[in-house]
Amino acid sequence: MRLPVPLALLPTVLLGLLLTSPRAAAQTPALNLGCPAWTVLNPADVRAAQVSAARALFTNAAGQISRVALNRDDLVLQGPSVNGRRCTYLVREGEVTGVGGFLTNFQVRPVATAATLSGRWTSGADSVLTLQRRSNEAVDFTAVNGGLQGLLSRQPDGWLSYAGGDCRLNVWPVGAWLLVQDSGRCATTLNFSGLYRRER
To answer: What residues are paired with 102 via a beta bridge?
Structure first.
């Protein structure tokens, strides 16, 4: 005889069932266990990290352990630390997946920013940026698919910015990646916002 699930426990039971499916976890951004979408975080607060524990289980905002686990050396993006925990987002092949939740600061180690920004950077299938360092304070860039080019100037906090007419492009080096924000007025058919990885 099966006993009915108390209504108060139903959300927890349903979440547990969803998290047992790796495919569901990877395709469902809602399984961030109380974390906001990574795109709404202040880029200045975002860091890159690598899982240092042999196995790290995500928790939700209340500290309840989920069944979604990360393995040692998995790469992640993280938001700011709050009470020793950070919202954490799994990154695979330069793409932020729908898998996320809270990890403690002891389960990961921060990843240093890339030594050079020069190279070809891609986000998804359409967005391509090429960067060439001009000096310590400036980087030439070309948006290959959008016909945009100019000079990114280094700001006091280390990020880079371009402004031309209504277009504003801000770039934050984060670990091995670039986090780019586009004002939405930089190209007629493309928005360059996203996480970029270096191709070469």
So the answer is: 59, 87
**Phi, psi at 155, each rounded to 5°:** -95, 165
Rounded CA gap, 59 and 1, in Å? Answer: 32
**Of 168, 166, 176, nearest in space to 122 by CA:** 176
| Residue-wise burial string across 16-55, b where 16 or more C-beta atoms lie within 10 A, e elsewhere | eebbeeeeebeeeeebbbebeebeebeeeebbbbebebee
What's the pTM? 0.79
d(CA 106, CA 149): 41
CA distances from 158 to 113, 171, 185 (A): 11, 9, 24
pLDDT in tens, the chain (200 residues): 444 434 343 333 333 333 333 333 333 334 568 899 999 999 999 999 999 999 999 999 888 998 889 999 999 999 999 999 999 999 998 899 888 899 999 999 999 998 888 999 999 877 889 999 888 888 999 988 777 889 999 998 889 999 988 899 999 999 999 999 998 888 767 888 999 999 87
E strands, 11-110, are 47-51, 55-59, 65-71, 75-78, 85-92, 95-104, 108-110
Structure tokens at 66: 């989920």
